[in-house]
Structure formats: structure tokens, C-alpha cells
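Ticket reopened. Same input as before:
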Amino acid sequence: MKKIKSVLVSLLICSLVFVNSSGVITKYSNLNNIENKTVLGYNFILLNDPPPSIG
Amino acid sequence: MEGLTPGEKIKKLRLDLGLKQDDLTNEEVSKCLISMIERNKRGLTWSVAKIVADSFNQYYKSMNKEITPEFLMETEIERVKKEFNEEVQYIQTLLKAGKIDTKLMTPIFDKLLGLVNQWKLRKEKAEVLLLRGEFYYSTYQYNNSIKDLTEALEYYIEEKNYYLVAYIYNYMGGNYQLLMSIDQAINYYTKAYDITLEHNTDNKERIRLQTTKNLVVCFRKMKRYDIAIQYINGFKDAKWKDLILYQRFNSEIMLLEANTYRDMTNYVRAEQVYKKLLEIKDELDKDVLFLTYDNYAILLLEMGKVDSAVKKVSKAYELMDKVLPYFRLGLIFTKSKCHIKSGRLSKLFETLKEGIDLAEEVNNIEMFINFNFAYAQMYISLKNYENALKHIKTVEKYVIQNNIKTKEYDLNIFLAEVYYKAGETDKGLEYMLKNRKDYFDLQNLK
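Engineering reply: fixed in the latest deploy. New output:
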């Protein structure tokens, strides 16, 4: 049982490393997925930044 | 029949069947009207075309043929489309030149939407909704803009016009950002970026530059400086082909980079970038130069260099007439901060009033709230709780009306503070408790 567990854990780690090492960011959605969920908890700050660029 | 006007077409069909004008009439359509239509003196409407087609079909039925109102009106639709295009072009020119006149444009939009609905022109309808969405955005009516753009978006997704889909997604992001729904804004900017990537659209470079910059601003708003820097670095590492466009965004990204380092309290690095921007000030857009002075002043204030900050604020004030109201609001806030640091209270109230008036004029909800909060804080420090409450209550009305979740926390704390300090401790406590969740439902516990 212990062996199976350790094999599973090392497989998991391998897959994580693989994703990270080959994880070239191609899509912004990949970059934002985790962050989006946390957005509402923030109290936004005042900024003197430029307005949105559109059009 | 091709090339004939609807009137000429009706006359030809009538004579072919050996009918008189009287044969096409009923209670709603007089002989006089038919005569005028045939001589092109009157246009053909849908309802009249239907009645005339029904009259013809009484005879055509026996020949197993059918005339449709659409057939009779074919050239009429072309005429309507031509009229439509002319009006659309006119509005587009006005919008591009920034000549936005609500009184002039609203009736034109109503007329155009009437036309497209009457003639069931789907493509044209999407076109006019997109245009009106842009018009609403420039007149600060963000909710209306979202409504129109969403409807236009449905059509363009269906038509697989990804160029416009990306364009609209970015616009939606802008609307949500200005409505302070930053999560939605991020969602749409991301979608816009990804669509250009998936479908390799012609506007990909422009959209990617725009959305990258917009996302940096959004993540800064959430104080996620790490992600903001990640996007800034992504911008720097990418190979952009359109150099003119790149230059414009590069200066904005540099400004955002400096602002981000400043907010991370890395003042040395921030000042380096501001100075770099001022070295090339002749090449900068007036907007960017204005914001550079403004943000540099904020840095100097944070570093305790009030005199230098005031100088930068005056530099920005010299450009005040050359920038849009959106930019001016931020500077007014910076000026207020300078007044506080140098202890000039009367000047401060004057400046805050200037800010509130301008924010209300351009419907900038976030700034309107910020200026009111600033007022409230000043009045609290002066122990004038009545006036403080007036400003907080104004914000409360706005927060409820526009469902602004992100300002609720500050609002409740302000209310708690002012009631507590004014001696109404129970009420103060009530607002304070609104900011923590209930871990149990204790109502039934005795």
C-alpha cells in the first residue's frame, strides 16, 4: 500500500514539474484562471492610472 | 424586372395580367395611392406591398405562381440600405472626430433601429447596436453600452466574425472596468486576447496591446502587483510588429511599471522610470505626460518631498486643457493630498468640490465615491459629523443604486465610525458588524 502511495505521489510531482517546465503561457485565460476566483474579496484602491484602451 | 422600382414593377405586373388600378385596392389602399406608387411619387411600405401582393396572388394562384411582398419591395430594401449606410457613416465620422452630440445622435439611432427592425435587417441591426454601444461608452452610459454590445456580440459570434468579437470583448471589459466590476473586466479582456490568438484576426496586434495594458491596470487595482509585473514583462518580451502602435503602448506600460514599483514601495526603481519618461517627454502623448507628472507627484508625496510634488502637480496643471476629464480627476485628488500635507484646509475643500463636480459631470462613479469619502474623512477629523454623514449617505445611495460591492466595506466602516464618534454607539456597532460574517445562525438560541 505504501509503495502504491509513493508511486502515485511521485507521478503527481512528475506531472506538475512537466506542466511547469513546458508551461509556456500562450493564452491569458490560462494565466488568470486561479486568480479570477479571488477577485471579489478585494477592496479596490484608488489609482491615477490611464483609462481603458478600447476601440 | 431587375432594376425596376417597386412602382414600375407593380405597374408591369398589373398590365401583364390585364388589371386596372381599381383591382388592387381595398379599404386601406386607395386607387390614388396605387397611382402615386406606380409613378414613383410615393414609397412602398410593407403593409401596402402585402395587400398588393395578395391582390395579385388571387390571379396567380390559378397559374400556380406566387408574388411575395419582399419581391415587390426588393429595390426598396436597397434604397433603405443605402440610406442606412449614409447615416451610419455620418455617425461614425462624428464619433471618430470626438464630436459627440447626444441631442443630434439619439434621434438618428432611434430612426436607424426603427428601419432595421421594420425591414428585419439583422446585419445592419448588429452594426447600429455596435455603434450605439460605442456612443454610450463615450457618453459614460456604461450599462446601456453593455446591453447594446451584448446583443451585437451574439450576432458576430454566430457569424464567426472574430475580428469584431475580439473588438467587442475588449469594449465590454472597458465598460465593466469603469463600472468597477474588475472581475468581469478581466474576464472580457482575457477573452478578447485569446480570441485573436485562436483565430489569428487582423486586429490581433492592436487588441493584444490594448488588453495587456488594460489587464495591468485591473490587477494593479486589486493590489496584485505580482501579476501586474508578470503582464508588464510579457509585454516587454513579446515581439511587436507595428512599431508606431508599440511606441504608444510602450510609454503607457512604462508609466504603469513606475506606478507599480511605487505602490510596492520600491521608490528608487519607480523614480528611475519616471525620470526616463520625462527624458523623452517631447515624444510622449499629452495624456501620458500629464499622468507621468501626476503619478511622479504621488511618489514624491510618499517620499515626503512635498515641495517637489507641488511643482510636478503644477506642471501637470499646465496640460489640463489638453487632456480628457478622466485624467483630470486623478490630478485633482493628488492636489488635495498636497493641500493636506501642507495643511491648507480651505484650499483642500475647494479642490475636493472641484473633484466632486467633475466626477458627477462625467459620471465617473469610482472618483465620485472617492471624493465623497475624502470629504467625509475631513469632516470627521474636524468633528463635524453631520456633514460627514451627508457625504457618506450620498455614497450609500450610489453603492445601493449601482450595486457596487467593492465599496461596501469602506462604506460600512465609515458609517460605523461616524455614528460611534457622534455618540450613537448602537448604530455604529450595527454597521461594524455588517463587515463580519455570521458563523452560526443564533436566532433560535435562547
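DSSP finds two helices and no strands in chain A. Helices of chain A lie at 2-22, 28-36. Please confirm and we'll close it.
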